[in-house]
C-alpha cells in the first residue's frame, strides 16, 4: 500500500519531533491505515473523528503525501508589512511600555494598529523561532 519512500516520509511527519501537530495527525492517520486499522480504530486511537480519518485517507489516495498539506484557500493572502512585524517584535523585546506596566498583546495591538490575534500570531511565531535556534 505504501512505498518505502512514502512510509519513510510519513514516519518523519508522524514523529513526536514534528512541531506541526496537524500534519503529524494526518501522517499518523495514514500510517494507522497502512497498519490495517479501521477508520473507527484510527479515530479512537488518535482521538479524532471518523470523518477526519476518512477525509485524510481520501486525500492521500488522491495525491499521496503531498496531499496531506493544506490546500490554498480562496481569497487574497493576508499580508502584514515587514515594518509592522519588526515593530511588534521590538515591542515584545522592550522591557516596558511608556505607561510603565508590561506589554500585552492587547496593548501592542492598540499601539501598532494590528488586531490582537495578529500580534499573538507574530509573537507565537517569533517564540517558536527562538526555541528552535
Q: Can you give keywords for this protein?
A:
133 residues, mainly alpha, 2 domains, elongated
Secondary structure tally: strands: 0
Radius of gyration: 20 Å
What is the CA–CA distance across the termini? 37 Å
The total of helices stands at 7
Proportion in β-strands: under 5%
Q: Low-confidence parts lasting 5 or more residues at pLDDT below 50?
A: none
The global form is elongated
Please state the structural category: mainly alpha
What composes the largest sheet?
Answer: none
SSE pattern, N- to C-terminal: HHHHHHH
The domain tally reads 2
The level of helicity is 55-70%
What is the residue-averaged pLDDT? Answer: 88
What can you see in these coordinates?
The protein is mostly helical and 133 residues long. The protein has 2 domains: 4-68; 82-132. The chain is built from 7 helices and no strands. The protein has helices at 4-13, 21-34, 39-46, 50-63, 82-93, 105-112, 116-132. Helix 1 (4-13) crosses helix 2 (21-34), helix 2 (21-34) crosses helix 4 and helix 5 crosses helix 7. The radius of gyration is 20 Å and the shape is elongated. The mean pLDDT is 88.
Amino acid at each position: 500500500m505504501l512505498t518505502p519512500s512514502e512510509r519513510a516520509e510519513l514516519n518523519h511527519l508522524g514523529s513526536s519531533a514534528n512541531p506541526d501537530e496537524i500534519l503529524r495527525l494526518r501522517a499518523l492517520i495514514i500510517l494507522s491505515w497502512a497498519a490495517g486499522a479501521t477508520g473507527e480504530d484510527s479515530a479512537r486511537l488518535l482521538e479524532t473523528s471518523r470523518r477526519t480519518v476518512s477525509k485524510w485517507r481520501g486525500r492521500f489516495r488522491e495525491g499521496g503525501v503531498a496531499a496531506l498539506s493544506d490546500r490554498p484557500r480562496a481569497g487574497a493572502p493576508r499580508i502584514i508589512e515587514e515594518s509592522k512585524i519588526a515593530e511588534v517584535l521590538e515591542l515584545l523585546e522592550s522591557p516596558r511600555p511608556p505607561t510603565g506596566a508590561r506589554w500585552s498583546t492587547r496593548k501592542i495591538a492598540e499601539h501598532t494598529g494590528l488586531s490582537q490575534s495578529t500580534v499573538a500570531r507574530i509573537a507565537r511565531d517569533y517564540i517558536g523561532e527562538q526555541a528552535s535556534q
